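Quick review question:
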């Protein structure tokens, strides 16, 4: 699985991480299904409350309005645009899931009320050079978590290449 970060999302994430300083923050990941195992992160919600320098407590109610606005903006096309998962920061630690993060995400993806085939957990922090350092992990019910490749869309144009390949193959040109 690959996750491309749109430039606008990367800039917002960087701004929010800078603003939060040493306090953990987080939110939802909203994205576009671009190809087989390729997703483009197009929006995030941000919860600035509920975090300390070592912990983040998510509040799903804080994100409902933004998720509904995202669905409305994308024409309720859930097959193409949907909730991808969660993100939070680890400003004081390496950006890897903690044991608590692993248990929490596995419980969310296993919840039939959520109804997700998979969820992604993105963990981010600002490095000493003020650039984003991040990891992403995918969760599916009943299977171990797996690492997700993160791609910076503006740098490698990887998502646009994926879209072009998909479009050409649909036309029968490639």
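Suggested answer, residue by residue:
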């Amino acid at each position: 699985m690959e996750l491309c970060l749109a430039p606008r999302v990367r800039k917002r994430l960087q701004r929010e991480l800078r603003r939060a300083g040493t306090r953990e923050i987080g939110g939802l990941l909203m994205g576009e299904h671009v190809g087989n195992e390729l997703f483009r992160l197009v929006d995030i919600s941000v919860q600035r409350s509920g975090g300390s320098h070592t912990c983040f407590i998510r509040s799903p109610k804080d994100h409902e309005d933004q998720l509904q606005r995202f669905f409305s903006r994308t024409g309720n096309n859930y097959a193409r645009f949907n909730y991808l998962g969660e993100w939070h920061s680890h400003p004081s630690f390496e950006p890897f899931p903690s044991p608590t993060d692993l248990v929490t995400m596995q419980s969310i993806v296993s919840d039939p009320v959520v109804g997700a085939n998979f969820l992604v957990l993105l963990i981010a922090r600002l490095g000493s050079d003020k650039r984003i350092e991040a990891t992403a992990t995918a969760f599916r019910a009943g299977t171990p978590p797996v690492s997700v490749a993160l791609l910076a869309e503006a740098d490698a144009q990887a998502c646009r290449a994926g879209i072009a390949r998909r479009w050409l193959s649909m036309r029968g040109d490639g």
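Why it works: The two ends are 22 Å apart (CA to CA). The helical segments are 7-20, 64-73, 99-110, 153-156, 158-171.
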